Amino acid sequence: MLTRPKLAQLLAACLAVLPALLATPAAVAAPDSPPPPQTAVGGERMGLSGVQVDPLAGAPALPRDLTGRSWIVADATSGDVLAASEPHLRLAPASTLKILFADTVLPKFDRNAVHRVADAEIQGIGPGSSLVGIKEDLDYKVEDLWRGVFLSSGNDAVHVLAHMNGGIQQTVAEMQARAEALQAKDTRVVSPDGYDMEGQLSSAYDLTLFARAGLRNPDFRMYCATRDALFPGAVDRNTGQRGSFGIANTDRLLGKYPGLIGVKNGFTTEAGSTFVGAAERDGRTLLVTVMHPTTYQKVYDETAALLDWGFAAADKVTPVGRLVDEVPAAEPAPGGQAGGTAGAPAPPPHPSPPAQTEQAEQAEQAPGPAAARTASGDDGGGPGTVGRLLAALALAAAGTGALLLWRRRSGRPAE
Fold first, then answer.
1. Mean pLDDT of the chain
2. Is 261 in contact with 224 (CB distance < 8 Å)?
3. What is the DSSP letter of 107?
4. pLDDT band with cut points at 50, 70 and 90 for residue 198
């Protein structure tokens, strides 16, 4: 027999679940709704496998026997991509990542500023790194440090400038933010100097974006075009005078390929060779990036061949994509290339989803029938809105009937 306390608890429970049963779930897309468009950054063909080129009548053939795992030819001014092969393939960038480092940090310091190097600033550099030869407790002009970065690919110069910028981690975070502003969605920065690190990746497309942005800075353009320079050396113990030594640009095309501006080469044992080159001819500036050919020298040979082709074919091909523009600071970056695995193209981006209720977001993440609710509110596995209403009324009626029965038996009037 129900006691008064137990009956009161039953009625309270019925009333408590009534709002939840009557609530209508948030409407979501029907299962047969078309999926959102999938387009790689720079255009649909930038996300396709194989060589992408659209020649018109009279266009020259692409160079034969290209071995680069990823490459791109683009017009630096218009942003037109003239041809490409796997441009969003995510690979280790080696020292070509220094292009992004320079684009991020170079505008912050006056080139004539002087910095005294502390011992801690040249510690923690990866073994086997390329170095320009910076010494602790000596003064260096900022412009000397940048020559060390561009000419000698000096990781010691990168580390000193990164410490001047607030530290390694601060600089890495700023580089990542800069990459996102440039819509370089394939890039993940782990070390500012490009030294081989787990998870550090970029793509030919992204490196080309970095070079295009960097070349807009006159100082960047000047440093990457410098063939040789004198670099400050140690202090002679006998004379007290500070010496200097010569450094030369490790870019093997600079001074050899007609019209070459720069930009940056890179090589590590694990990453292989990478190169981003810019050249100007007859008022047109082309950018070519080649990543991971079969041998070290081929990165230069194939870059030169693709530049030759680009200048000859520029007006005889239909662009197959474009270099996207930087996102204005006031606007959020759109969804883009997501993180793929090393050596595999990242999946194409999806547009940012519209605002959803928490219930709908959970439904999208959950597997099984609950993830495919129809617009009518039926999840395929339970009652719809009408069913919930009937269940609620039945529970309420049951609770009310039980209360009336108890009151009759106890002799209490209904209220």
1. 80
2. yes
3. G
4. very high
3-state secondary structure of 80: strand
Highest mean pLDDT among 107-111, 234-238, 267-271: 107-111
pLDDT tens readout for residues 334-374: 544 433 334 444 433 333 333 333 333 332 233 333 333 32
Query: 71 near 288, Cβ under 8 Å?
Result: yes
Residue 263: beta bridge partners? Answer: 277
Assess whether pLDDT exceeds 60 at residue 331. no
pTM summary value: 0.73
Q: Per the residue annotation, which of 70, 85, 95, 191 is the catalytic one?
A: 95
DSSP-based helix, strand, coil % in the chain, nearest 5: 35, 15, 45
Q: Which listed residue (70, 85, 98, 264) is catalytic?
A: 98
Buried b (16+ CB within 10 A) or exposed e, 297-313: ebbbbbbbbbbbbbbeb
What pLDDT is attached to residue 47? 97
Is residue 153 part of the annotated active site? The answer reads yes
Q: How far apart are CA 340 and CA 346, in angstroms?
A: 4
Structure tokens at 157: 């110069």
Torsion-angle region of residue 60: left (phi > 0), alpha (psi -120 to 50) or beta?
A: beta
**DSSP-derived secondary structure for 186-227:** T-B-S-TT----TT-BB-HHHHHHHHHHHTTSHHHHHHHH--
Give the C-alpha separation, 391 to 329, whole Å. 53
- The secondary element (H helix, E strand) that includes residue 15 is helix 4-22
Q: Which of 85, 130, 152, 153 is catalytic?
A: 153
**How many residues in total does the chain contain?**
415
For residue 323, count other CB atoms closer than 10 A to its CB: 25
pLDDT in tens, 183-192: 999 999 999 9
Question: Is 95 a catalytic site residue?
Answer: yes
User: Which of the given ranges, 19-23, 61-65, 325-329, has the highest pLDDT on average?
Assistant: 61-65
Using alpha carbons, list the distances in angstroms from residue 82 to 6, 287, 350: 79, 10, 25
